[in-house]
Amino acid sequence: MRKLLIGICLGLVASVAGADGVENKWRLEFSGNAESAGRIVLALAPAQGDPIRATVDVPYGRAENDVARDVRDALQAQSGKRYSVEVDDGEDVLVKKHEGERDFVITIVENSVQGVRINIGAE
């Protein structure tokens, strides 16, 4: 059942990526500390092509700046040289496409970490 739900979510991400919601740069703003252990799963979906999934296991008590760094590391590891991923202002993560790559959209597939909020917006 879980794999079915993840597949549906990724399918929705892919369909959104075909819409006007794709951009060349996104900001993920993290706020709040981890009041529970949990997992954050993000999907980065280019306008055409397969989405990239990044999963971060977050321990209880992790501060927002540390969560942002963990997400940066996971996104960079999964996206390789296709995208630039960096931390900005401690609690924000900027994701930018490299020249020649397609515009993309980032969505939250799962956030089971109590207390950690993620706001995603185009830059």
Automatic annotation (TrEMBL):
Q: Which domain of life is it from?
A: Bacteria
Keywords on this record?
A: Signal
Signal sequence range = 1-19
Q: Any idea what this protein is called? A: PepSY domain-containing protein
